[in-house]
Structures are given as C-alpha cells and as structure tokens.
Specification:
about 25% strand, six-stranded parallel β-sheet, alpha/beta, about 290 residues, Rossmann fold, 9 helices
Length: about 290
C-alpha cells in the first residue's frame, strides 16, 4: 500500500500528540474530537468534521482504562459510518494482562474486549508492544503488534554509557532484553523475580551478579505500572555495585507515586515512549506505526 492512499486520522485527547505525528507522516488529514465528561462520568465525543477515505483511529487505552476503552469504541463505531475500512491504532492496549484464566473463576476480559472492537466496526488493529502476544489471538480481525525497541535503542545509543549492560527485571522479559541488547551491541542478563498473584508482592530470587559491577544498567520492560518490579531490580543491582541505572519501557503508566519510588530506588532516568503521554515520554513510536499502516 502506498502513502498516496487517502487516509483520515482521528485522534482524541488521550493520544492527540501521537495521532498528529502519524497523520503528518501519512500526509493525511487530521481530525480532532471534542470530549465532554458529564458529572456522572459519562463521556460524549463529537468529531470536529466528517472524515473521508480510509480512517485511522488513534487512541490509547490507559487509565482511566474503562473510560478510554468506551471512548475508542465510540470513535470506531462513528468512523465505520463513513468508511468500510477503519484501522484502529491502540498504542497501549489495556486489559492485555487479562488474556487467560490464571486463577479459577477469573474472567478473560481480553476476549470480550477483542469482540467489542470487531462489533464496533474495526477492520484492522495495530498495537505497540502488547503485554502478551496471546492476547492477540482473541481478535477475529487482522491484528499487528509492532515494537518500539528499535526506537528506544536509538535513544540510548546517543547516551555516553559506561560499558552498558541490558537487564530484564524478570525471566519473562528475556527475549525483549536479548533483542534490545543485540540492537545495542551489548550484553544482557535477566533477574529471577517472583510475584505473589494474590498480594502482588515482588521479590528478586537471583543472588549475586558480579558482571554488573561498575557498569551502567539499562533496565528494560514492556511497561512500568506501579514500579514494583523496577524498584526491586534497582535495589538488587545497587547492592551489586553497578554504575548508573536507567529504566526504560514502551508504556509508562507510573501509577500513583511510582515515579518517586523508582527514582528513590536509585534509577537515574526513566525513558518511555509516547504510547502514553507524560514527562518520561522521550521516544516517538509514530515511525513504526506508520510503517505498519502503509
């Protein structure tokens, strides 16, 4: 597909900045929305003008997750009235962690969310570094997961790090850390973490890691929510007498005082992408999204 194809990009306040960048790279018209939230919490969205051609709806589903989910579904439903092809870019996909039944009786909410997008009228879904690839299997329409790792690596290559080492805070992120390290041209390790599924408490089971001594660390994860895993990892690495610690992720939710806790644990800088807007969002993912669209 050529970029000469006529697109209209629709963005709402949750992803307005990223949506505008995508529209610019696609050389497409951008349409914003007016959002009104009533006293009871209901959202009312109004498109500022009528879209034409193939439509790209850009909207992250981050906190407040339920409100943003309803808003993006409403936009998709409205877009479907104007076009038979509605691409939905969900930079951060909420509910992706609820992709299977971990404990008896748990609802697999991701399955319902996937059905809702299809019913609303989405013809194609594009997500960025979704928490679980298994979550994509719940969708019954073409879905593509793109990664921001390459863009994050470009950022860190510009820093003058001292003998850098890429570290995954848990074994589940080994492949991510490996890919990041390979692109950086450096080594990587993974810590052994245990999280209590009922209490959420995190402990690092790994013992000594002499290879981190005096080396700058890049802690890599797909998302940072409460920051518990990053804090435990940073505290553990500091005990091993490492150099500076940088925490990087695609999605920085940073719930509550997560950022303060992370910095207090010894992390020099938090670097995330603009899938979720915020002061740590230093890396733009629009190039990989546009590539997936075109």
């Amino acid at each position: 597909m050529s970029l000469l194809v006529s697109f209209t990009v629709i963005g709402e306040s949750s992803s307005d900045h990223l949506a505008r960048k995508i529209a610019s790279k696609l050389k497409s018209k951008y349409i914003g929305c007016e959002l009104r939230v009533f006293p009871d919490g209901e959202s009312k969205i109004t498109l500022k003008t009528k879209p034409k051609g193939k439509i790209v709806v850009v909207h992250s589903v981050y906190p407040p997750v339920d409100s943003n989910l309803v808003r993006v579904l409403a936009l998709v439903s409205q877009a479907k009235k104007y076009s038979s092809e509605v691409y939905v870019v969900i930079p951060y996909m909420g509910y992706a962690r609820q992709d299977r039944e971990f404990l008896p009786g748990e609802v697999v909410t991701m399955s319902l969310v996937a059905k809702m997008f299809k019913v609303a009228g989405a013809t194609r879904i594009i997500v960025v570094d979704i928490h679980s690839i298994l979550a994509l299997k719940h969708f019954q329409i073409p879905t593509k997961n793109v990664t921001a790792i390459g863009e994050l690596v470009k950022y860190f290559k510009r820093l003058h790090l001292k003998y850098p080492l890429v570290v995954s805070p848990d074994m589940g992120g080994v492949e991510r850390a490996k890919n990041f390290a390979n692109m950086m041209g450096v080594d990587y390790i993974a810590l052994e973490k245990h999280r209590d599924r009922k209490t959420g408490e995190v402990i690092i089971k790994s013992k000594n890691h002499y290879e981190v001594r005096n080396r700058d660390i890049i802690l890599v994860d797909d998302m940072i929510s409460t920051g518990g895993s990053i804090v435990k990892a940073a505290e553990h690495l500091k005990k091993q007498k490492c150099g500076k610690i940088y925490a990087t992720c695609t999605h920085a939710l940073l719930i509550g005082d997560a950022e303060r806790k992370i910095r207090k644990s010894g992390v020099t800088r938090i670097v995330s992408t603009n899938t979720i807007p915020g002061k740590t969002s230093m890396v733009d993912v629009s190039p990989v999204i546009v590539k997936a669209i075109s």
